[in-house]
Amino acid sequence: MNKQAWIEYALQQGMESLEIYQAQTSQRSVTWFDHKVDAFTTSSTIGTSIRGVYQKKMANMAFEEIHDDMMEDVIFQLIEQAQTLSTKEEDTIVTPKSFTSVTKEVHWVSADMTLIKETLSTLEKRLLEFDPRIIQVNELDYQEASGTRMITNSLGLDVRDEDHMQAISAYVVAKEGNDVQVNYEVEVVEDLSQLDLDAFVKKVCTPVLKKLNAKSIPSQTMPVIFDTEAMTSLFSAFTGLFNGELIYKGISCLKDKLNEKVFSEKITIVDDPRNTDCLSIANFDDEGYPTRRKVLIENGIFKTALHSVKSAARMNTESTGNGFKPGYLGTISVSPMNCCIMPQTKSLEELCEDMKDGLVITDLQGLHAGIDFVTTDFSLQASGYLVKNGKRDQSVTLITVAGNFMALMNDVVEVGGDLDWTYHQVISPSIYFKNCAISGE
Amino acid sequence: MLTKDQCEKILSYCMASEADFAELFEEHTTSESISMLNGEIEETNRVIRAGIGIRLYKDVQSVYGYTNEMEMEKIFTLADDLKAVFGISEEERSVSLKEQKMENRHPVLVDPIDAPLSEKVKLLERAYKTGKEESEKIVKITGSMRNSRQNVQISNSDGRFVQDVRVKTRMAITAYAKEKENMQTGSDGPGASQGLEFYEHTTPESIAKEACRTALVLLKAKDCPSGKMPVIIDNGFGGVIFHEACGHSLEATSVAKNQSVFSDKIGEKIASSCVTAIDDGTIPNAWGSENIDDEGNPQQKRVLIKDGILENYMIDQLNGRRMNRKSTGSSRRESYKYEPTSRMSNTYIAAGTDRFEDLFKGIKKGLYARKMGGGSVNPQTGEFNFAVNEGYMIEEGKITYPVKGASLIGNGKDILMNIDMVSDNVERAQGMCGSCSGSIPVDVGQPAIRVSSITVGGTANE
Lengths: 441, 462
Description:
- Chain A is an alpha+beta fold.
- Chain A folds into three domains: 3-84, no CATH class; 113-147 and 159-211, PmbA/TldD superfamily (PmbA/TldD fold); 214-441, no CATH class.
- Helices cover 20% and strands 38% of the residues of chain A.
- Chain B is an alpha+beta fold.
- Chain B has a domain at 223-457.
- Chain B is 19% helix and 42% strand.
- Chain B has nine helices and 24 strands.
- In chain B, the strands form four sheets. In chain B, strands 1, 2, 3, 4, 5, 6, 7 and 8 form an eight-stranded mixed sheet that branches. In chain B, strands 13-12-11-16-23-22 form a six-stranded mixed sheet, with helices on one face. In chain B, strands 10-17-18-20-24 form a five-stranded mixed barrel.
- In chain B, helix 1 runs parallel beside helix 2.
- The chains are: A alpha+beta, B alpha+beta.
- Strand 2 of chain A pairs parallel with strand 3 of chain B.
């Protein structure tokens, strides 16, 4: 693709600016089941998205098949689209801003097929041997993925970066009597030959065995700790609260709440795409705008919203470098990256001791359906365990936990210190809340 | 699209290996989305997706690769990667393809991709105009329209060479109603395997009215009580209960590997006798229909459960090998980027004989779930959950007041047995179903049903 020719032609046709975003990805994965390779997937794709401003309106198109001879037709369609838009606000494409780059030192070692097969085979054997109650290794998967993104625009922006990831995952089933429970774990592996297999087996099997013989409990309102996994799920579902676009549209309830106390003073939330503790980092967003560290909530007070160029312009401020797209086929929206509730010091066990009697929730299901983002009400399937006199007691399943996220975040007793960035982009430590409505038997 | 000749070359090349089957899935899809806020068109996006997926089997092992770099040389490199997993053979195995013509059961009058943008914008504007006139309490209306046209070409080493075109359109409207500080939303999002003529019978006005109606009801809703109680789940999207609680567990994806609560249960009673459940991918112009599945087999109507007895599963070719059963034409995928597997199409509980009003009789305290949200299930354990978007309390056999924030949880095998009444008013509604082969359009459906006992999760603990 002759990008310069596309840009020149677009400008000749009266467009004010044009941006070409390209992403190239390659990936391979091996799935192991029942003592053999069950599936092997390999791929290589390249995609291009083109957006441009005509009469101060932005139009978007994306292609997996693009040739220079499509230029006239594509630019014509972009102009036609822009003319259809009827919003009053003006759109722009960003002029490049200088930035310094941070880098993350990771030495990925690609694994050959022999090593992958050997590792998966050994893992399957050790998972099944861990305990007679482990009855099936439902899925064992190793995958490697690489991506390159390139952004060029008519205002002189020309940036690119690369990303890589390797991970192993396992899904096991345990059974005791008629009770069946499952657990799934992922681990990022820089070098498969160095993976501590026994530690991974323990990480996968221990939780599922503890879940066995879980029971429902009577409906009640009680003290609850969401462990780091469950709290991460819940927090991830509500990070849209800080989305400048949703605030501008009045869909996020944080509209007009800047510098007001919205959460408990124990809550501080930071978004930092340059945090090298995280799996992926980005020095610029998908608009080529430099990223930076922002404190969204400081001791309960709402300090900053997240913005793309568009949402920032709507609210008369500057982009925070959070304009991301879900791959080249999508359009820019505001997203957090490497966003966390800041950890304090106590472990989950210490939080349980402080709570004495209550419930720990370890797993939430149905997050795509059981959440009303506008009211922040939620009602979700949950499982976990009871805590009696500060110690783990009966495992609990088939209950729901319901409440209002804004109210819950004002009902914090303590924030834990167990934050593990391993593979999440949004994360929370365990949090102990005064009360939550539980439905069960 | 690749020519028949090119497909033969690639397939023959793939079969010069230890593989016993090879398949090519090529697609060229144009899709567009148009989004509206309060009558203003705020974003449009048009996307062309094009690529190829190659799959090889050796017994029940499969290898899959995809690319959108369509030069023959790149495709052969991909084939080399796949062949290497099973082992390369020097033996020539020439594949000869025979073109199959399919009857199109889903005719399209006004292609939504080719129609002018202005025509589609007008439809969204009509929805907005109706919505804002519904009530002063409606403070915001968002809308979107998604259209797509997917051209697929499937060929395999058994000589199959077949093409299909799948055209879809869907409009979704969300209304925001506000009274003092209380803001509630209501949505409706019908769609079909049809062109813009769909909006002649399912009008933008009717979509907006339904979204506004729910939002306005929820303004008056109280918190939902918790606990086990009888629940009446209304028709249409209420069918999500069967989809989540049972449908996924009847897909060969989980059944073949003995990962479903319903594995090895054919001929057994798994549901109450008043339950007959069907998955039918042939319904003309339905959202989850297609002429052929993504392995090129004709779509079918499958009776899954008849009078409570399990009759059939939804089976794709690869899992068919594992189960020693034939494909039921159930193999689907989001795009060439996914290896296909068995999935639902248009799944519904068939009409029963009870009258809707009789379902309420004898319920002292229960929940009437008029509109369901989405949900999820773990097929291994059978545990499911789903959200109630619009619910009402039933007290002494009568509907008393609307409730919000409810969810239903339970185990699939229990709930099927606990359906004690099935009315006669079957309706279907549209959804997107996510699973290992991606996100695909499906219809869910049912008449109103009564479940004698189910756990309702709410916030109003007594």
